[in-house]
Amino acid sequence: MAREWSKALIRAAIISSLVFIFLALNISIWGYFYANNVFSTLSGISPVAALFDQTSFIYGNNGTLLKVIHGEINRIPVPVEKIPKHVQQAFVAIEDERFYKHHGVDPKAIIRALYNYSKEGRITEGASTITQQTMKLYFLTPEQSLWRKIKEAVLAVEFERRYSKDTVLELYLNRAYFGEGAYGIQAAAKVYFNKDSAQLTVAEGTLLAALIQAPSSYDPYLNPAFATQRRNIVIEKMIAQGFITTEQGDEALKAPISLNDGREIESNDSYFTDYIIDEAISAVGEEKVLKGGLKIYSTMDPEIQHKAEKVFEQSDLFPSAKVEAAVALLENGTGEIKALVGGRKYVARHGFNRATQLARQPGSAFKPVAVYVPAFEAGYGPDSIVSDTPFKVGNYEPKNSDGGFYGQISIRTAVQWSRNVAAVRLLNQIGVDKGYEMAGKLGFNLTDDDRCLPLALGGLTRGVSPLQMAGAYAAFANQGVYIKPHAIKYIQDPEGKIIYSHPEGTAVMKASTANAIRDVLRTAVESGTGCRAGIRGAEVAGKTGTTELPDTPVFKGLSGNKDAWFVGFTPRYTAAVWMGYDEKDMDRYHYLTSYGGNQPADIFRTIMAGAMGLSAEPAVRLQDVQAQEDEQKQEALNKQVDTQGKEKQEPKKDDQQEQIKEQEEKTPENTETPKGDEKKQETPKGEVQEQDKPEEVPAKPPIRENNEEHKN
C-alpha cells in the first residue's frame, strides 16, 4: 500500500513537473514573441527616447538660454554617462536595492505580490523592480491587474536579456516624473537646482530620488520638511547598501535643502519669445517645436531687449496710462530682430502682440515706401521739384496739416516738412501702380482697394504693423536689399542637424535709390518733423507718421489723432515705433493728441541710443527746427512771388489766393485722374490726412485726455 502511494506521488510529481515545464515553455515562447513584437520598433536603444516628447530650447544671439518650451511634458533626455554614479545609486537604493543582482524581476517580490493578490483579490503592493517600472512607463498602461503584471515581468526579463543595466537606468531616469512639470532627471535638475544633472551633489541627487514615490507630497517648494525627511531615508539606505561612506552620508544629512529655482527660465515669457515660438511653429510645425527636443537659435539681443522693455516702463514717455505702444528693432544687414516689444505690459502668454499683429494706418511714414522710393527709381532725385499746391481728383482732395501750401519745392523739402499734397501729386505723376508694386516688394500685403492715391499718405485697407514698417525701412539702410524680418537664425534637431535657417535677402531697388531716400530722410531728422529722433554722435534718418481720428459719430467735433508713428534707422539698426489706443479703449475721452514727431520719436531715440550705447539726449533743439520751418515757409512764398514778377515780399491774402488759383490752372494734373483710377478716387479707401508737425503740440489747443476735464 505504501509502495502504491509512493508510486502515485512520484507520478503526480512527474506530471506536475511536466505540466510546469510545458507551461513554462509555452510562457517562454509566448514571452519571446510578445517581447519581439513590443521591441520590434527599436533598432537600437537611442530611438527609444526619441519616441517620446522632448523639451525644446530657445537661445539668444549670444548663446544664452532664454526659455525652455514643451507641450504637456517637460523632458530633456541625457545619456547615462552624464548622470553621476552616486545619483544613479540613490535611485537604486530607494527603488530597487537588488537591481544589480536580479535579471529583470525580483522573485521574492513577485511571490509576495502573488500571495497578497490571492489573499486580498486585488493588487495591494507593487514591489516592481526598476526594470519593470521602466517597461510600464514605456510599453504598458498604468492599469492595476494581474495580467499587466505578468506582461510587465515578461518584458522586464526579455529586456534585460537584450540590454544592459545602464540602458535600463538611462531609460528610467529619463522618463520618471519628478513633480513641477519635470519629466526626467535633467529637467528635474533644471527645475529644482537650475543646473545640469551632471553637476548634482549627493544631497541633491538623493532629494530627486526621494521625489519619485510621491512628487506632490514631497515637493520641496511646497513641503520642505517632508522632502527633507524622505531625502534622509534615501541617504541612510545608500549608507546601508555601501554606495557611500558614513562620512559622505553624514555630510549629506547635515546639508539643508538648497533650491535654485529654475522655473523662471521656463516661464520667461515675453512678446519676443512668443514671436520666436510662432515663427518656429510656422517653420517646422507645432509638434516638433513642443515635443521635438529642438534647439532654436534666435536673433534676440538680450541686452537691447531688456533696455527696450525698460523704456516702455517710463510713464513720462506716454501721454496717459491707457495709451499703448509697440516697437520692432532690426539689424539692417541681416534682417534679424534684436528687440521686440508688443505693448507696455506683457499680460498673457501668446496674447495680442502689437509689434507683429497690429494693423493700423501708417500715415506719412508710408510716403517713402509708396511715393519717394518709386519716384527715385523712376529718375527723380532729392532736389527734383514737386508742386505743393491745391489738388483734387474726383472727391479726393488731400490737405496739408497747416492748411497752407509751399508752392514749388524740392522732394527733400517735401519730406522734411511732410507735405501731404506734394506727395499725392508726385504719386499721381509717376502712377499709382509703381507705388503699389514697391510696397509689395517691401513686404506689405496690400489689396486691390489700396491701388489708389490715398496710398501716398498710408491710407490702407488693412493697415500695417511696426515689424513690417521696420523691415521696409531697413532695406533703405541696406543698399536696397530687402530681408524679411526674422526672429530665428536656425533650428537644430536633437542630433544637431540644421532643419531650418533664415531667408536670404532680395534687391528691390537700385543702390542709388536707397542712397537718395536715406539722404532725404536724414534731412527730416536733422532739421524737419523728425528732429526729436536725432541722437548725438549718430547718423539718424527717419520719418514721422500720424493719422487723424476717424470721421465717425463717436469723435464728431473732436480734433485729435488715432495713430502716431516714427520709423527710422542708423547705419546698423532700424526701429519702428507705434503709439495709440487699443480700439476697445478709444472713445471721446481717450484719443491721442500726440504726433509722430514727439513722443514716438522720443521713444525711438531712447531705445536706439540704448542699443548703440549712446546718450538719449536730443541732438537738435525744437526751437531751432521751428524757426527753420518758418524760414522755409517764407522762402517758398517768396519764390512764388518771384516767378510772377512781383516784389520779394509777403503778398496780401487776396494776392496769395490769386497765385494759388493761377497755379491750379497751370497744373494739368490738378484735375487729371490716372488711367484705371477714376472709380477709386471717387470713394478712396482708408483715407488718411497726415498731421505731422514739428511743434510739440498741435496749432489748436489740444483736447485733454483727462476724463474729469472733459466733463467740465
TrEMBL record:
Coiled coil: none annotated. Residues 644-712 have a biased composition (Basic and acidic residues). It catalyses: Preferential cleavage: (Ac)2-L-Lys-D-Ala-|-D-Ala. Also transpeptidation of peptidyl-alanyl moieties that are N-acyl substituents of D-alanine; [GlcNAc-(1->4)-Mur2Ac(oyl-L-Ala-gamma-D-Glu-L-Lys-D-Ala-D-Ala)](n)-di-trans,octa-cis-undecaprenyl diphosphate + beta-D-GlcNAc-(1->4)-Mur2Ac(oyl-L-Ala-gamma-D-Glu-L-Lys-D-Ala-D-Ala)-di-trans,octa-cis-undecaprenyl diphosphate = [GlcNAc-(1->4)-Mur2Ac(oyl-L-Ala-gamma-D-Glu-L-Lys-D-Ala-D-Ala)](n+1)-di-trans,octa-cis-undecaprenyl diphosphate + di-trans,octa-cis-undecaprenyl diphosphate + H(+). One of its GO terms (cellular component) is outer membrane-bounded periplasmic space. The chain crosses the membrane at residues 12-33. The keyword Zinc does not apply. GO terms for biological process: cell wall organization; peptidoglycan biosynthetic process; proteolysis; regulation of cell shape; response to antibiotic. It is found in: Cell membrane. It comes from the Bacteria. Residues 625-712 are annotated as: Disordered. Its EC number is 2.4.99.28, 3.4.16.4. Its main location: membrane. It is a single-pass type II membrane protein. Cell wall formation. Synthesis of cross-linked peptidoglycan from the lipid intermediates. The enzyme has a penicillin-insensitive transglycosylase N-terminal domain (formation of linear glycan strands) and a penicillin-sensitive transpeptidase C-terminal domain (cross-linking of the peptide subunits). In the N-terminal section; belongs to the glycosyltransferase 51 family. In the C-terminal section; belongs to the transpeptidase family. This is Penicillin-binding protein 1A. The gene is pbpF.
